[in-house]
Design a protein that fits this description.
The protein is an alpha/beta fold. It has 13 helices and 16 strands. α3 packs across α6. The relative contact order is 0.13.
Amino acid sequence: MYKIGTFNKISPVGMNKLTDDYVVVENPDEANGIILRSYDMHEMEFSDELLAIGRAGAGTNNVPVDRCSEEGIVVFNAPGANANAVKELCICGMIMAARNVPAGLEWAKTLKGSEGVGKQIEKGKGQFAGTEIMGKTIGIIGLGAIGRLVADSALSLGMNVIGYDAFLTDAVKAMLPAEVKVVDELSALYPECDYISIHVPANDATKGMMNAEAFAQMKDGVIFLNFARDKLMNDDDLLAALASGKIAKYVTDFADDAVLNSDEPGIIVLPHLGASSAEAEDNCASMAVTQVMDYIENGNIKNSVNMPNATLGPKKDCPRLSVICKANAESDVMFKLNELELANVISEKRGEYAYILADLEDKTIDLEVAGIIRQRII
């Protein structure tokens, strides 16, 4: 019987994917797999029983990924499972900013209890006149699952779309509508856009990438949409750009102290609602649970953030060897496996780590190789 632990409220739709071979436990030290959403695991100690962590969402900032790698724990996320939910909220945020909806709503509330509300609204509505998005140009930074959907929707709404992705592949480019103008440099995107929406991960390379230098290249009065992460923004430079009018509106789903406590009127903050739809929570939980189960039962890795993807399909009627090792130990492990002349073997590398999966058929193997972090027979 395999044991699964959970943190946060996980969608029952996802948890119902667990078969009768699994039991949900309260003590995480007993768990072979953990499913979570936003719970911060950085201070946790992990038991030797823990094989996998499934994040029911895209970001894994709340998981100590490097430490998990060192301990041979595979960390999964659920890329794309919440993409439609985030896309819809991003489009909503863009229209709210264009039409001054938040300010209008707040003003309308002040009329509660007064007389002649209809006349007051007709007299005062002009202060909230906005612009239409049709015919305007949106720049999309990051053309992953969410960015591509935003591009699609923007085109359907009659907008012009310019896209940029630092790691754009031919396969991803082929998924984009032909109408999307893809540029190789952000400097070619910034000055053309009335709206800019960012959809890149937060890491050392992207932290603070939206700074004074970037803002200076943008159109005056640009509306900036951030439904990715707050750490992408240099807060001081952002607030200065808002104060000068370079950025007319900043719409974000990721509040931090500097932005939320600012008196700049162009800030629209949403309380991290991007993936907070019933459908997205179901999709993310289902993907996380399914991937963790596939790894525990079959050794297959798909959508891991710290280990190479490698799959051999459902486990056959023979033992299957699963090995996580340092990349420089991979050749030694494969040398021993090649001596067995096995038909079903896969080996993949990712950065410092390698993952090897092999159906042992009727063979046995004794792996005493320096650099192996975790090995198990399934």
